[in-house]
Specification:
With about 120 residues, this protein is mainly β. The protein has strands spanning about 5, 10-15, 20-25, 35-40, 45-50, 55-60, 65-70, 75-80, 90-100, 105, 110-115.
């Protein structure tokens, strides 16, 4: 069983920054890709950023150049550094992983990010 626990959300003014963290309780963290998704009210959940086990990253076009995903395998933690935040970044942000050995997906409970104009 894997638990993902996000933290770091909050209320920030446009142009500000936040850093989200997601701690993974599993024993295979270092072998798994990790994702950050977000879901705004009335919209579908969308992939924001991804980092694979080798540290290769991918970003949604809407956050390229502003957000940075990183991981610390010693701490079983993935981060999302969010800079130059915009009101349209307002959403609940979720951490996600799919275990490399079982294919089972896990989600965190989400953390609210609100960007005021």
């Amino acid at each position: 069983q894997v638990q993902l626990v996000e933290s770091g959300g909050g209320l920030v003014q446009a142009g500000g920054s936040l850093r989200l963290s997601c701690v993974d309780s599993g024993s295979t963290f270092r072998y798994n890709a990790m994702d950050w998704f977000r879901q705004a009210p009335g919209k579908q959940r969308e992939l924001v950023a991804n980092i694979n086990s080798g540290g290769i990253t991918n970003y949604a076009d809407s956050v390229k150049g502003r957000f940075t995903i990183s991981r610390d395998n010693a701490k079983n933690t993935v981060y999302l550094q969010m800079n130059s935040l915009k009101p349209e970044d307002t959403a609940v942000y979720f951490c996600n992983t799919v275990l490399y050995n079982t294919g089972r997906a896990y989600w965190g409970q989400g953390t609210q990010v609100t960007v005021s104009s």
